[in-house]
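Re: export button greyed out
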Amino acid sequence: MPPGLQQAPSERARLAQVALGAALGHPNVTGAIGGGSFVTTYGETRLEGVSATAVGGDRFSVGLRLRVTMTPLRPLADELRDRIERAAAAAGRGALLAGIEIEFADLVEPGRPDAVGARA
Amino acid sequence: MTGQSLETSGASSESSPQDGRGATHIADAVVMKVAGIAAREVAGVNQLGGGTERALGAMTQRVGIGDERTQGVAVEVGDTQTAVDLTVVVDYGESIPRVADAIRENVIKRIEGITGLTVTEVNVSVNDLYFPGDDQPEPSRVE
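Workaround output, generated via the alternate export path:
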């Protein structure tokens, strides 16, 4: 690709972007943690903390690895799935979404320095 | 200080109850932090960890790589259950059985409330007693 041209994200990458944005918009989510399979790249852009895996039939399973505040985690996972499904539908990509796997990898306490950490 | 056996594969480090919309995993580190924070909330708990662990923890925290919330905490996490081992230092003068019971109660309440995992056992090991003034340097005998 000639230098200076930005590669357009694939449907997979767009879905990952929408899912990550929706998750990070939740007030109890303080960041996403990349590494391993939880990275989605397109062009020079890296989306840390999210994966989108093809499961057949032009559908993708989304995975998120998150840092969250002290809150009941099972209800939070359900809320995040709702938000992501709504965001994907609003972006015209609801039909692409298969399942949403959520990993709670870290927890922050209100008032601690890591509670206001970077949204990776 | 033990309960029933843990229904787990033993090797699993995450819990992953699956529903139709995808799995939810809770990392061991999350359960450890909740347990550590819950134990520290109990009156009479001075700090967590064994002697060596506390000394190493003080050094690693000073350089910003340690986390005192998981010091003295070990967990085994299964699909739906977890077991917790805690090493604590108790304030001198407190009733150790009372403090141990209070730790157990608070750790169970917090872990079950936050993670949804059932806590099968909380093993509390009292490693040391803290005397007020322990952390102050001894006055010099000479001027």
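Residues 96-115 of chain B form the longest helix (20 residues). The button fix ships in the next patch.
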